[in-house]
Amino acid sequence: MMEKWYFMNSGKCRGSYNMAMDEALLTFHSEGQIPPVIRFYEWAEPTLSIGYFQTAARDINLEAVQAQGIDFVRRPTGGRAVLHEHELTYSVIVSEEHPDMPKNVTEAYRVISEGILSGFHELGMEAYFSVPESKEQLDDLKKPKSAVCFDAPSWYELVVEGKKVAGSAQTRQKGVILQHGAILLDVDIDKLLSVFKFESDEQKAIMRDKLVQKAVAINDLTDAHITAAQATEAFRRGFEQSLQIELVPYELTSEQLQIVEEIERTKYATDEWNFRR
């Protein structure tokens, strides 16, 4: 008998609601209310999410964010800023003590990300993990990166034709792993660059060239137009295959939804949280 995990497809939600939902699921799992869960979701409007440790005023062109009507939220996870628009986002919530989860953070990241790898294979794409093969590559991974998530792959992030196609981040709280990440369906590089601060136009041009070389979206790699629904089904199958689990559809109870809304209202929808750095 395969282990049963919950499966949720939340569709398009506010950025603050998406982050509140991920945090609430982590808490519900830590309290034993639900088994491990995999959730897919989208964004009701273009949203810039920044990592927990990022400094908004230093890294982000907040005037450009506001002028373009882009939503803004700080994630509970680390990593760098992501402009969520034409993408599918996933989250995985599972106990640190789960027998299939390595104690090592990097290896647990790899195990979870195997589901994303399998999903790309389901879509007929030759994806693979970015793993340093030399001391120079290892040293490069240790160097400080820009504020932009997709300028270079990190350990065990997904690469197709040498370019990063998915970016993920992880946190561990209450004995539970939360890993979530963006799977690019399409990308508007100029819009992405517009929300970051650069010391000069030359630096911005250099980053644009770098992103063209280092990042790619699914629909840049195929003649078939892959929709969010098609991607969701492919990655759902990918997680079932890689983790050897059965995903059971689940909807939150009204009481659980009230908790999500309370977390959103008191945390992720507040300037105190979003601009704390």
TrEMBL record:
| Pathway annotation | Protein modification; protein lipoylation via endogenous pathway; protein N(6)-(lipoyl)lysine from octanoyl-[acyl-carrier-protein]
Q: Which UniProt keywords apply?
A: Acyltransferase, Transferase
UniProt catalytic activity? octanoyl-[ACP] + L-lysyl-[protein] = N(6)-octanoyl-L-lysyl-[protein] + holo-[ACP] + H(+)
* Protein EC: 2.3.1.181
Q: Which GO terms describe its biological process?
A: lipoate biosynthetic process; protein lipoylation
Record InterPro entries = aa-tRNA-synth_II/BPL/LPL (IPR045864), BPL_LPL_catalytic (IPR004143), LipM (IPR024898), Octanoyltrans_LipM/LipL (IPR050664)
Q: What Gene3D superfamilies is this protein classified in?
A: Bira Bifunctional Protein, Domain 2
Task: Note the PROSITE patterns from the entry.
Answer: BPL_LPL_CATALYTIC (PS51733)
Marked site: Lowers pKa of active site Cys: 164
GO MF annotation list: lipoyl(octanoyl) transferase activity
Q: Catalytic center at which residues?
A: 149
**EC top class named in words:** transferase
Q: Which residues form the BPL/LPL catalytic domain?
A: 32-247
What's in the misc comment field?
A: In the reaction, the free carboxyl group of octanoic acid is attached via an amide linkage to the epsilon-amino group of a specific lysine residue of lipoyl domains of lipoate-dependent enzymes. The reaction proceeds via an octanoyl-thioester enzyme intermediate.
Report the PANTHER family cross-referenced here: OCTANOYL-[GCVH]:PROTEIN N-OCTANOYLTRANSFERASE (PTHR43679:SF2), OCTANOYLTRANSFERASE LIPM-RELATED (PTHR43679)
* Family assignment from sequence similarity: Belongs to the octanoyltransferase LipM family.
What does the UniProt function comment say about this protein?
Catalyzes the transfer of endogenously produced octanoic acid from octanoyl-acyl-carrier-protein onto the lipoyl domain of GcvH, an intermediate carrier during protein lipoylation.
Protein name in UniProt: Octanoyltransferase LipM
Species this chain originates from: Caryophanon latum
